[in-house]
Input
Amino acid sequence: MRFFDSNEKLKTYRGRLPHWRQNRVIYFVTFRLYDSLPAAKLDELRQERELWLKLNSAPWSATQRQEYNERFNLRIQEWLDAGIGSCVLEHAKVKQLMDTVVKFFDGNRYRLDQFCTMPNHVHVLVSPKPGWTLEQIVHSWKSYSANEINRILGRHGRLWHREYFDHIVRHDVQLEKIRSYIKQNPLLCFAK
Output
């Protein structure tokens, strides 16, 4: 397992979120249901983020990075944990299917570390194997599960939000924090 290496080649691209890619690294990924975050809240957050970015030009200090994470990334996690939307992943058969889908190609296409299926989102620590990209892996999870979940629930239409959050893990300490977060997330969310 490798962490982000500032000396290695890095590919970047943007959708609504920034995405960084390096070979043979471990990623923290969160993908969510289409209806899990209200558009009004996301628009408000986007406007706040645009203003913050205008007032805080790169390169950022450690304090600015922490503030950005708390104001934007952590807030979205709090909203997801509030259980907004249809929360179809909380149904026993659907959760079991999602867990099976995430584990299915472990050891073949990727190395799976930790994951949890929440009512309206999924967290995964994963390292793609050579020949596979994170985009291919997440696409296969979302595509197959959407078809099967819609079949189980007798519904049709969009299930997953198009984009997903991904982060290249930086070091051992961060990896342990993310592992702990993934293990504790169901306990914290369901305790509310």
Q: What stands out?
A: DSSP finds five helices and six strands in the chain. Strands lie at 11-14, 18-21, 27-32, 110-117, 121-128, 165-168. Residues 37-82 form one domain. The first helix runs from residue 39 to 55.
